[in-house]
Amino acid sequence: MHKRSSSFHNDMRPIADLHTHTVASGHGYSTIQEMARAASEKGIEILGITEHGPRIPGSCDWLYFKNLIVVPREMYGVKLLLGAEIDILDTEGTLDMTDDQMRSLDIRIAGIHPQCWTPGTAEQNTEAMIKVISNPLIDIISHPADGAAELIMEPIVLSAREHGTHLEINNHSLHPARHKTVARGNNLELLRLCKKYEVPVTLGSDAHISFMIADYSNLYPLLAETDFPDALILNDKPERLLPKHRGR
């Protein structure tokens, strides 16, 4: 069982990881079954498998998501939420899936990826993010603090509080090999603002292989540095973590 670093004084035990990818995303390395088995072995009870949206090079097209009806929603004792990490494309908040397509998914994450993002000013980027946060179909914003777009964090946190859309603290974006030099400082700012305004967060592994499921090791030092309260971390609170299925 993965444990927090000893520098973090609380003992929240994650039972959920809602942001992961399989081979279907084009740059993942495990199958759905391999991911579910690994989650079971790690004591994870709820696993979100959120393939990249169709605008990411090499990812699956809509037919893949449409056919998810054939996949069991429980494997090896793990509840599966099958959905997508939908791409935010521009400063208008355009997404690469339609509302009808998103409604068919178990879980809807939305995030900015440089491969398919047309940036604007920090103010324009922030307005786009707020538009997506206010979309009743979106459950979680993926890695808002990774630096893929220049954003103003305070209005994003306040919008998340207003609309009940969760903000993710993303483990993978903090890996040294990703060279995201602003991610640490941005995530610290995001955590401090969420603590100030009592806005809950999710921890996301962003696993692209089964071994990375529920790996939050890059996040724990930040949680310790900000003395972030367990009460605002949702990965052990399924009654608050599970998508509300708003807009269905």
Task: Briefly characterize the structure.
This protein has helices at about 30-40, 60-65, 100-105, 120-135, 155-165, 185-195, 220-225, 240, and strands at about 15, 45-50, 75, 80-85, 105-110, 140, 165-170, 200-205. The protein is an alpha/beta fold. Strands 1, 2, 3, 4, 5, 6, 7 and 8 form an 8-stranded mixed sheet that branches.
Q: What is the CATH H-level superfamily? A: Metal-dependent hydrolases
CATH architecture: Alpha-Beta Barrel
Report the CATH C-level class: Alpha Beta
Give the total of beta strands: 8
What's the Cα radius of gyration?
Answer: 16 Å
Q: Which stretches are poorly predicted, pLDDT < 50 over at least 5 residues? A: 1-9
**Count of individual domains:** 1
**CATH overall fold name:** TIM Barrel
Overall morphology: globular
Series of H and E elements? EHEHEEHEHEHEHEHH
Distance between the termini: 36 Å
The major beta sheet can be summarized as: 8 strands, mixed
Total of DSSP H or I helical runs spanning 4+ residues: 8
Structural class, from secondary structure content?
A: alpha/beta
Kindly state the percentage of residues in helix. Answer: 25-40%
How would you name the oligomeric state of the polypeptide chains in this document? single chain
- Average pLDDT taken over every residue: 93
Estimated share of beta-strand residues: 5-15%
Give a description of the structure:
Strands 1, 2, 3, 4, 5, 6, 7 and 8 form an 8-stranded mixed β-sheet that branches. It contains 8 helices and 8 strands. Mean pLDDT is 93; it is low at 1-9. The protein is globular. It is of the alpha/beta class and 248 residues long. The longest helix is centred in the last third of the chain and has 15 residues, at 183-197. The protein has one domain (16-241): Alpha-Beta Barrel (TIM Barrel), CATH 3.20.20. Helix 4 runs parallel beside helix 5.
